[in-house]
Specification:
The chain is α+β, with helices and mostly antiparallel strands. The chain contains three helices and five strands. It has one domain (23-97): Arc Repressor Mutant, subunit A (Orthogonal Bundle). It has helices at 24-33, 42-53, 60-72; strands spanning 7-10, 16-19, 39-41, 76-81, 84-89. 16% of the residues are buried.
Length: 98
């Protein structure tokens, strides 16, 4: 199983930097899972990911950890819609929740 977390490193200018710890093939597949959707429920996104991968064993908790790492890097944004956690692609996706 693949389970990685974000590492925060310090630069010479005392700025925190978030390091990508999501393997590229998993990150690309997560982004493909959105399809043409603007906003996707977390459970639906996970099901689409499972369907696309057909062989990568990734628990839902690991999947959510990858999404959270991607959110820290502004690749995706999270929000709540109809009382359920949702995700949108891109740093400008925060406009979806306004």
């Amino acid at each position: 199983m693949i389970c990685l977390n974000a590492r925060i490193t310090h630069t010479e200018y005392d700025q925190n930097e978030i390091v990508n710890t999501v393997p590229p093939e998993i990150e690309d597949t997560i982004l493909l899972s959105f399809g043409h959707a603007i906003v996707e429920f977390e459970d639906t996104l996970y099901q689409k990911f499972q369907h696309l991968t057909r062989g990568i064993v990734l628990t839902k908790r690991e999947f959510i950890e990858h999404l959270e790492n991607m959110e820290e890097r502004n690749v995706v944004v999270s929000g709540t819609f109809l009382g359920k956690r949702c995700w949108a692609m891109g740093s400008d996706g925060s406009a979806v929740w306004d």
